[in-house]
Structure formats: structure tokens, C-alpha cells
Amino acid sequence: MYSGRNYSGLFFTMASTQACLHINGDVRSYVNNLPVQVRMYRWSTSGYWEEATVRAGGFSSDTGNHPFWDRPCTGGVAP
Questions:
Q1: Is residue 45 part of a domain?
Q2: Domains in the chain: how many in total?
Q3: Which domain does 20 fall in, by range?
Q4: Three-class DSSP labels, 9-73
Q5: pLDDT exceeds 80 at position 77
Q6: Is 41 part of any domain?
Q7: Is 52 within 8 Å of 40 (Cβ atoms)?
Q8: Does any domain span residue 27?
Q9: Residue 27 pLDDT class (50, 70, 90 cuts)
């Protein structure tokens, strides 16, 4: 996942197919090379809720601005 549009500013890379990470920053583009989908969660006062899903093999050069995606989870794992 990248902090800039058009795959610039590599933000983080996930290699696990069953894990959740905590991130702090914007995701503005992504490439999912994993064989599983990635669910993007955001925190609210009532807990985490799913805000977006990135399909296996999916990509986007401009997701818009998503400053609240803070927990990507792979392989059906939830925060």
C-alpha cells in the first residue's frame, strides 16, 4: 500500500495471508499481490468496522483520501 497516488511513497507491505496490522497514515493507492482479499477496517467508538475490501490481485492507482483506514486484515482475520 502506498501513501501517494499512482503507487508512490511505499507505505507498507504485508506478506502474511492471515494477519492484521495497525497503520497510521493515508492509503491512496495499492496493489494486492496476495492470493487472499484484504479488508480495511477503521476504528470508531463502538469498535472496528469494515470500510473497504481489496480483492486478491486487486489494484488502484487512486483510492481517494482514506485517512481512517487503520487496520488492514488478510485471509478472513478480523481485528
A1: yes
A2: 1
A3: 2-74
A4: EECCCCCCCCCECCCCCCCCEEECCCCCCEEEEEEECCEEEEEEEECCCCEECCCCCCCCCCEEE
A5: yes
A6: yes
A7: yes
A8: yes
A9: confident
10 pLDDT higher than 90: yes
Phi, psi for 6 (deg, rounded to 5): 60, 35
CA distances in angstroms from 4 to 1, 27, 68, 75, listed in the order given: 9, 7, 15, 25
Q: Is-contact 2 32, C-beta < 8 A?
A: no
Closest CA to 2 of 78, 71, 62: 62
From residue 48, how far is each of 28, 61, 76 by CA, in Å? 20, 26, 14
Could you tell me if residue 79 is inside a domain?
A: no
Three cell numbers written together for 7: 503507487
Tell me the per-residue pLDDT of 58-75, one tens digit each, with 9 for 90 and over: 999 998 766 567 899 999
